Amino acid sequence: MARSIISFFSFISILSLLTLTPAVSALPLSTSSRWIVDESGQRVKLACVNWVSHLDTVVAEGLSKQPVDAIAKRITSLGFNCVRLTWPLFLATNETLAAVTVRQSFQSLGLLDSISGIQSNNPALVDLPLLKAYQAVVSSLGSNNVMVILDNHLSKPGWCCSNTDGNGFFGDQYFNPDLWITGLTRMATLFKGVSNVVGMSLRNELRGPKQNVNDWYKYMQRGAEAVHSANADVLVILSGLSFDTDLSFLAKRPVNLTFAGKTVFEVHWYGFSDGQAWQSGNPNQVCGQVYNNVKRKSGFLLEEGFPLFVSEFGADQRGTNVNDNRYLNCFMAAAAELDVDFALWTLVGSYYFREGVVGAEEYYGILNWDWSDIRNSSLTQRLSVLQSPLQGPGLSQSRMHKIIFHPATGLCLLKVGFLGPLKLGPCSQSGAWTYSSRKVLTLKGTYFCIQANELNKPAAVGILCTTTNSQWDIISDSKLHLQSKTTDGTEVCLDVDSSNTVVTSSCKCLSRDNSCDPASQWFKLVDSTINTTPTGPILEITSVVHMIEATN
Question: Is the Cβ–Cβ distance between 374 and 344 less than 8 Å?
Fold first, then answer.
């Protein structure tokens, strides 16, 4: 046994000689209160996508479809700056598995077509040992300025996750805590000095009948200390219980670690996390209930001064899953409001071999089956607003203001022309809005405010903002409707028509009705300190004063 361990570390030492292009600047990362920051102290927002490398082949998916460099370039072209790259524990603890070549791994599963594909697209990888192939993927991402988070997804290679798969919690069939510590230490050591590896997720989705809080503290703190001791540069990312949906126990008992400035917590949030509640319930009520639950179980950590990394979220990108569609609208609003770091599930368009199926398609994948194109361009456009930070250290380009975000489109409300109309457009062109104690939405530095003049007509822009049709209440259980009264007293909500013009319509889905969809009427007032460039001319306050004086 001792000889095996020595030989394995010799193998690790040889692999450590592989160098990666230090393309990512201002690294390593650390934490400053709830923010992740670079060496200069400026916020870095992790806008990641999950790339699966933990299934039966133990090879990053898609290498039979496209060259690894082309995939890395595609990731950056889609606006992501980071990959959460999964790995099975046995890759780091079983030297026999680590030494199996890519070709041998696929041969053992009878995946001859995939071998041909890798031979064609990635000939330099096909005869590498699995661990070296994993390193080569990290290297390619680094060469393309993509940060990497190493995610220990499970122990035994295969699909994840269930309560009874033997990978769920400390002491399960394939989850020996001491072996896990050894694996974390080896991976942290292997990637020490690899500049684009910025973090390590200790374990994905703790779960199952054995899960308990006391063992969570016992082993997660040991794992965190082991990683930091082996590689003090990386962020140490801790997951929660119940498939990584619950960190509520930290409210009463913080983690006790010997180091500071490197701790991040992660949470997962999917539509199916709440069964079919989104489809069977009223969207406003479900959004309000679920979002409050997420804040209670994990969101509170932001207020306590820890970064919260939503390391998995996603939806069926075919657009036909009502449960997922409704969930995603709510998630988008929450993610924008909290300005959290995130990792979309998933990059993968198809798998080599998943749960006995060869070439299984992944409908949550941002790429299509052959990895040649985007599966749903409208979703990637929606995500773009989340990929850039809205506030944080070093990003105070202007005073705090609001952008008026429309989750269903990923666009923001902006004023076009001198007196409107109000349209949806890129959030970078939003302009800075304020929401006063009198509930008036005013374009900052001007007298322009949003008004409701008539039912089913475009929302107006005016400068006399003391009337009731200039007051906007945030209503409904979701807190995503903006309601006012027209000049004749009719209650209306901001809405969007088919041309992305902002209109005032009858408020919908406020009751228990589960058949309607309020998404077009959902707006979120989001804090930002980032400068935006309005599309239309701005009438400054001084200009208005001069205009009024001239008419008297």
Answer: no
Please check whether residues 54 and 103 belong to one and the same domain.
yes
Domain presence at residue 547: no
337-390 confidence digits (pLDDT tens): 999 999 999 999 999 999 999 999 999 999 999 999 999 999 999 999 999 999
Encoded tokens for 239? 């997951």
157 and 119, same structural domain?
yes
Secondary structure (3-state) at 527:
strand
| Residues 227 and 287 grouped into a single domain | yes
For residue 479, what is the domain's CATH number? 2.80.10.50
Other beta carbons within 10 Å of 360: 16
197-201 and 235-238 beta bridge pairing: parallel
Domain that holds residue 522: 401-528
The CATH number assigned to the domain holding 73 equals 3.20.20.80
CA-to-CA separations, 241 to 121, 168, 271, 365, in angstroms, rounded: 39, 10, 18, 25
Distance separating alpha carbons of residues 415 and 423, to the nearest angstrom: 6
Domain assignment present for 125: yes
**Domain identity same for 413 and 378:** no
| pLDDT above 90: residue 549 | no
| Pairwise CA distance, residues 248 & 246, whole Å | 6
For the whole model, what pTM was predicted?
Answer: 0.92
10 inside domain: no
Residue of 283, 247, 282, 242 whose CA lies nearest to 264: 247
DSSP letters, 58-122, are: -S-TTTTTS-HHHHHHHHHHTT--EEEEEEETHHHH-HHHHHSBHHHHHHHTT-HHHHHHHHHH-
Domain count, the chain: 2
Residue 200 lies in a domain: yes
Considering the domain architecture, whether residues 350 and 421 belong to the same structural domain is answered as no
Report how far residue 142's alpha carbon sits from residue 22's, in angstroms, rounded to the nearest whole number.
7
Angstrom distances, CA of residue 18 to CA of 136, 242, 376: 9, 38, 37
Are residues 220 and 251 located together in one domain of the fold? yes
User: Could you read off the pLDDT of 132-148 as tens digits, one per residue?
Assistant: 999 999 999 999 999 99
208 pLDDT higher than 50: yes
Q: Which of 386, 409, 437 is where one domain is finished?
A: 386
Domain boundary among 334, 360, 386: 386
- Both 365 and 405 in one domain: the answer is no
Distance CA 474, CA 420 (A): 23
**DSSP string across 254-286:** ----S--S-EEEEEE--GGGGTTHHHHS-HHHH
Residue 205: HSE in the Cβ half-sphere, 13 Å Cα cutoff: 23
Residue written as token pair 């598995």: 97
**How far apart, in whole angstroms, are the C-alpha atoms of residue 462 and residue 246?**
46
Note whether 321 and 284 are same-domain residues. Answer: yes
CB 137 within 8 A of CB 147: no
Q: Which letter, b or e, does each residue of 111-143 get, where b requires 16 or more Cβ atoms within 10 Å of its Cβ?
A: beebbebbeebbeebbebbbbbbbbbbbbbbbb
Angle between helices 377-387 and 322-338 (to 10 degrees): 20
